[in-house]
UniProtKB/TrEMBL annotation:
Keyword Disulfide bond: no
Key words, A-Z: Calcium, Metal-binding, Repeat
Organism whose genome encodes this protein: Monopterus albus
Gene3D superfamilies linked to this entry: EF-hand
GO molecular function, one term: calcium ion binding
Low complexity biased stretches: 1-12
Organism superkingdom: Eukaryota
Chain positions covered by the region annotation Disordered: 1-25
Name of the protein described by the UniProt record: EF-hand domain-containing protein
Annotated EF-hand domain residues: 34-69, 104-139
InterPro entries noted in UniProt: EF-hand-dom_pair, EF_Hand_1_Ca_BS, EF_hand_dom, Myosin_RLC
Pfam families reported in the protein's UniProt record: EF-hand_5 (PF13202), EF-hand_7 (PF13499)
Length: 178
């Protein structure tokens, strides 16, 4: 039994979402086509006014349809704020990708790297970073460090471009896909 009416998203709303996909990042490569279709259907169920954006009232109504009537506005706002802007289909898919793949958001990873870059250069020294990874907190093995550095953009001076590395971690490596 579907929560949505049998007449799924209108053709106009469908075309809006398709245009959004073409200009999106690699988030679509994180899922099989069948999964993307399921996410589209779920998005269409929540986006009840078919404007291509999920709003707080629509989330509240979706929860009510599922039998949860006492969802606080603060909870809904917190969920919506995870998107850092309007929740269109691409943002919706990205949020699921982050949750399902267990990867922290890019800004969280960048903030962690910035702790090792007091001068704000965008780089950390590979050897110093390796030493820290192998001797602090959840200690990495040499093999784990080598695996991590295999994707890392490292300049001839031995510095890791951590901004590019963060992008690779959260969006995938362009070289892997070609």
């Amino acid at each position: 039994m579907s929560l949505c009416s049998s007449s799924q998203a209108s053709k106009k709303a469908s075309n809006k979402r398709q245009r959004g996909q073409k200009s999106s990042s690699n988030v679509f490569s994180m899922f099989e086509q069948s999964q993307i279709q399921e996410f589209k259907e779920a998005f269409g169920c929540i986006d009840q006014d078919r404007d291509g954006v999920i709003k707080k009232q629509e989330m509240k109504e979706t929860y009510a349809q599922l039998g949860k009537l006492n969802v606080k506005d603060e909870e809904l706002e917190e969920m919506l704020n995870e998107g850092k802007g309007p929740i269109n289909f691409t943002v919706f898919l990205t949020l699921f990708g982050e949750k399902l793949n267990g990867t922290d958001p890019e800004d969280t990873i960048l903030a962690a790297f910035k702790l090792f870059d007091p001068n704000g250069t965008g780089f950390v020294n590979k050897d110093e970073f390796k030493r820290l990874l192998m001797n602090q907190a959840d200690k990495f093995t040499a093999e784990e460090v080598d695996q991590a550095f295999a994707l890392a953009p490292i300049d001839p001076s031995g510095n890791i471009d951590y901004k590019s590395l963060c992008y690779i971690i959260t969006h995938g490596d362009e070289k892997e896909e070609s």
